[in-house]
Specification:
Blueprint (H helix, E strand, L loop, with lengths): L1 E8 L5 E8 L2 H10 L3 E8 L21 H16 L4 H11 L3 H15 L4 H6 L7 H13 L2 H56 L7 H36 L1 H10 L7 H21 L4 H11 L3 H15 L4 H8 L4 H13 L2 H57 L1
Antiparallel strand pairs: 1-2, 1-3
Length: 407
């Protein structure tokens, strides 16, 4: 395919310039006319040199677009749209000031698509890894209704709520994760450095050692002799799990399993349902048909298992079932929430009830997170106590036997 420099005028007589990648000049002309612009000149040019992009990590991978980038982008687009700045000019200014190279590159391509006559939602849809499907669909609704600034404001608020929910869940998981990592490192340190120091003392006793001591010595000897193999196996397991989670089957299995983790699984499920309720409320309230809103919301969630359940709700509605009956069959929602949905369907205010459902789950998540530390601390104390007991029996019991022999 070649690259063509064009000059054209839109319906308002404004002069447009840009580059399009196409097979022939006739294809470029057809694409411009389809977008409502009249081509003035089309000239084939050399392929533009790709700009070097600053990589985001040590391995040279481009940085991903996170919620902070989307929040900032939506806030900026809301301000620029409300001020009446043309879209192409507004986004071109954001390209120059973007902090994320991946976002900047995608916005540059969006500007080229806009200048070629494509609408904004279609230009966003060409970059699914940067702009979520939910964002693209709501932008399309905003274009059709003339309320693009309000759509960007709602999207910014939605992503801010998402970020707050995810941060709360991460904060809840941070304490038990650090404690478990500390326990693992303590066991490794004791096995490699502490127990070998006592091994010579135990060997000088000349008596049969207790079972706990023999287990500790065997574990320490195994780790001392095979630690390179254990290290290699740990790295291989880590790489294998990371690759497995990139597959659809592996990601689905993990998303389903983490909802069953004791104490933490319920928090993750409720946090996911908060995101679902807010995304569905925003889509349905903007005028998107219910089935399409459910489909886009299912793809917007970070949990494939819950997303599959939401697709089952959509399939049920397409077969003629009500929203409440379809939601009941998934087993995700509590009876109170199902009753709220039923009232919303009867009164025709499903969007209002969805907002109430989101607030209900958000309060539950906040309450569970506050009580998580108090629920986990006894479990961690029991684990640490058992580890100290085993070490004490294995290390000090032979010494007590030695003191009895000396007496």
């Amino acid at each position: 395919m070649g690259h063509f420099q064009y000059r054209a005028r839109n319906a308002e007589g404004q002069l447009l310039q840009g580059q399009i990648e196409a097979l022939t000049a006739d294809a470029v002309a057809g694409q411009l006319q389809a977008g409502g612009t009249m081509p003035l000149s089309i000239t084939e040019v050399a392929a533009p040199l790709k700009k070097s992009v600053k990589k985001g990590n040590f391995f040279g991978a481009a940085p991903s677009v996170g919620r902070d980038d989307l929040i900032l982008f939506c806030r900026q687009m809301f301000t620029l749209s409300k001020a009446g700045v043309p879209l192409a000019r507004a986004i071109r200014g954001l390209v120059e000031t973007s902090r994320n190279p991946t976002m900047g590159e995608a916005l540059g391509n969006v500007v080229d698509s806009l200048e070629a006559g494509q609408n904004l939602s279609g230009a966003f849809s060409a970059h699914p890894k940067v702009f979520p499907a939910l964002l693209c669909r709501l932008v399309q609704v905003g274009e059709n209704t003339g309320k693009l600034d309000e759509v960007f404001q709602e999207l910014a608020t939605f992503f801010e709520h998402e970020k707050e929910t995810v941060n709360r869940v991460k904060q809840a998981l941070r304490y038990p994760t650090f404690v478990l990592i500390a326990i693992v490192f303590a066991v490794i340190f004791i096995s490699l450095f502490v127990i070998p120091a006592f091994q010579k003392v135990f060997a000088s006793l000349g008596a049969e050692l207790p079972l706990a001591t023999r287990i500790l010595l065997g574990l320490s000897s195994f780790m001392l002799h095979y630690w390179p193999l254990l290290l290699v196996l740990s790295i291989l397991v880590f790489i294998s799990l990371k690759r497995l989670l990139k597959t659809t089957a592996g990601r689905y299995a993990w998303d389903r399993y983490k909802l069953k983790i004791p104490l933490v699984g319920d928090i993750i499920l409720r946090a996911t349902l908060v995101r679902f309720s807010r995304a569905f409320n925003m889509s349905y309230g903007a005028g998107v048909p219910m089935t399409q809103a459910l489909s886009f919301t299912a793809r917007a969630l970070d949990n494939l298992f819950v997303g599959e359940k939401i697709e089952l709700i959509r399939n049920g509605i397409e077969r003629g079932d009500t929203l409440t009956r379809s939601a009941t069959q998934t087993g995700l929602f509590t009876p109170l929430v199902l009753q709220m949905l039923a009232v919303g369907e009867e009164t025709g205010s499903v969007d209002t009830m969805l907002e109430d459902v989101a607030d209900f789950y958000a309060r539950e998540v906040e309450y569970d997170i506050k009580n998580l530390s108090s629920a986990i601390e006894p479990i961690m104390i029991i684990i640490i106590g058992c580890m100290v007991l085993v070490l004490a029996l294995g290390v000090f019991l032979p010494m007590w036997n030695l003191s009895a022999v000396v007496k």
